[in-house]
Design brief:
Transferase(Phosphotransferase), domain 1; 6-stranded mixed sheet; 11 helices; 374 residues; Phosphorylase Kinase, domain 1; two-stranded antiparallel sheet; 28% helix; alpha+beta; cell membrane; Prot_kinase_dom; protein serine/threonine kinase activity; globular; Protein kinase domain-containing protein; ATP-binding
Amino acid sequence: MKLFRCFSPSKKKDKRNAAGGAGTSTEESPPTDASASPTDDNASSIIPPPENSVEGSSPQGPDIVPNVAGKEFTFQELAVVTDNFRDILGEGGFGKVYKGITDTGQVVAVKQLSFEARQGTKEFVAEVTMLSNLHHENLVKLVGYCAEGDQRLIVYEYMPQGSLEDHLFDLKQGQQPLDWFTRMRIAHGVAKGLEYLHNSNPSVIFRDMKSANILLDGNLNPKLSDFGLAKHGPEGDKTHVSTQVMGTHGYFAPEYYRTGHLKVKSDVYSFGVVLLELISGRRAYDFFNLNNERNLVDWARPMLRDKRRHPQLVDPLIKDAFCPGLSQAVSLATTCLQEEADVRPKMNNVVMFLRPLTVPPKSAAKGASTSGSK
């Protein structure tokens, strides 16, 4: 793989997110919106100096992203940190993510934005700016950035357990599925992260809530990552922000997909999809499903309406486990997935509703500890 993808174009590589990265998922948009693609080049042992940015822009980071918290790295410093970008953690529509170690011994994830990404600089500025001003235990931490020449890189804390996606779908041989209470604890942490964003001043709409953008630390505590699509919410008496529809199939709120009207409650719908993924172990949108069951919400709707069928929604990998609070979790997902945005709950109510579902009853503690085994 060449380290400077700006030097030669190549085909997109369809690789799933690997453990430990930050913001590694593929960005998708509706069929009318062309997505940017990363590239995949042959290996090179020489790191050339970065080119100056095109169109006469300054190569210095502060001119691009002023007043940013975190260290400003040079490209050569990050080449050392990542050992010449050797250890790739994953890739997505806006670039690749590498594992590295700083001179202080901190393990980090370094996202290098693709030069060919249509909105690479815009996403870079949005993400670095957002993470510089937002601080919460359920948001990934910004360590630093690099804006040198055409290079745009973001340095995050390293998340050793990878993404939630890694723990729900296509498990590796011998990998244990997440037990019920861990799933509810992850949902609760994600909800707290969204609650913080929505209650910020100004409010922040995450806009790309999905399992691939939920990273897990060593204790499986979740943190939201990849803020490249995040936007400030409506101000004053406005009800929405009008914007180009971008994100990932299966997670779009109906009003956003149809009209481009983005609301704080659009995030709530996407959270409902993630909660349904946690319950069912099924992808939000499965392109490879040949049984007309590609869309998770469409597949689940008949069961969501019938409490007697709620057990049919449970991930087959934990179906035999004790899942107290299942009907409450399904009811919450149903409420979040309402077609009308205004009737969806606020995230502070979601947080309160989920809290008791994260604690196993004393009588179930023993069963919960083994619920992931078969």
